[in-house]
Amino acid sequence: MKTRILGILGGIAILLSAASVYAGGDPPKPVKVHGTHACSAINSPITFDGFNFASYNNCTGHDNFGVFNGQEINAYLNIDPSTGVPITGPACTAPDKTAGESYQLEFSEFVDTYNFNNDQIWGYSVNGSICESNTTGSIGGSTVYTILGGAGLFTGATGSVTSNFSPVIGILYYENYPFPPYNLSVGSFTGTGVFGQETATITGTITP
Predict the structure, then answer these.
(1) Fewer Cβ close by (within 10 Å): the C or N end of the chain?
(2) Which residues pair with 49 in a beta bridge?
(3) Distance of alpha carbon 105 from alpha carbon 130, whole angstroms
(4) How many percent of the chain have pLDDT more than 70?
């Protein structure tokens, strides 16, 4: 059984911030957010259910309020955690136009730190999906995140944002057979794991 490359989609670190801190007077108003990020990803030692593969994404990016570093863990359902039986997802077309398989997000969490200071925002998602190519490592998808709060400027923040993975997302190395571009011949390495990259656009609103 092919272990699916899941969680790179993922995702995803969220690009959020607020223009000011609410300190009384008029209640805070929703702030529209738009931005981009780029991430590298590797298989995570953390799994949410003990069955489904999870990935750890290390990201940098910017939005209309500043620059941030972000970390994220994502898992998609390719194994039924109640039975341990593989799940076959619906057919789909990957970003590079090859035939693929679609999977629903199981769970995702993120933390973003803005401007290398103590202003942070965090959230989670159970609402998303990816389309993964059966042959090339091309992956695309979308995730909707719920904001749980934050620290500094983002204390008590709420909102919802959507991360859309761009067509350049992909896998540089997967299990024991790398996809191009690579420096290892097929079968030359017997380890397991995944290393890849993603870019994404972020849109949504946050209320500080």
Answers:
(1) N
(2) none
(3) 8
(4) 77
